[in-house]
Amino acid sequence: MAATRSANAVWNGNLTEGSGTTSLATSGLGTFDVTWKARTEAANGKTSPEELIAAAHAACFSMAFSNELDKAGHTPEEVRTKADVTFVPGTGITGSHLTMSAKVPGISEEEFQKIAGEAKVGCPVSGALASIDITLDATLES
Hints:
Mean pLDDT: 97
Keywords: Oxidoreductase, Peroxidase
Protein name: OsmC family protein
Helix content: 25-40%
CATH topology of the largest domain: GMP Synthetase, Chain A, domain 3
Order of helices and strands: EEEHHEEHHE
Strand order of the largest sheet: 1-2-3
Organism: Pseudarthrobacter quantipunctorum
InterPro entries: KH_dom-like_a/b, OsmC/Ohr_fam, OsmC/Ohrsf, OsmC_Ohr_Peroxiredoxin, Peroxiredoxin_OsmC
Number of strands: 6
Strand content: 25-35%
CATH architecture of the largest domain: 2-Layer Sandwich
Distance between the termini: 38 Å
Enzyme class: oxidoreductase
């Protein structure tokens, strides 16, 4: 079954001096201020499209990794993922770097890395970001 999720944005003014908001419409969990400066300089309490993409990529990868572990007969105690999405003005989004650490009882380092790589490729957000470089550092915690 397909699921559609929605977000809204409102922008006022020109690109560099204007400002706006983006709202998580489906969940209603929040409305966030956005500005060009938050996109290219310090965030100063505002967000950017890249930060929202990073949040989506980190959550999606964690879910995909957990699913791949389950298919291989492993259950993680915890998976922590950070996504760093890079934006270059005039060029666009150039990459997403995933840094993940997880506690997975009974798994070898080799299997852990193999499954992490499969999750990186299989994550639907990674698929949506296929035109950029996606890298992964995966650490198995003891």
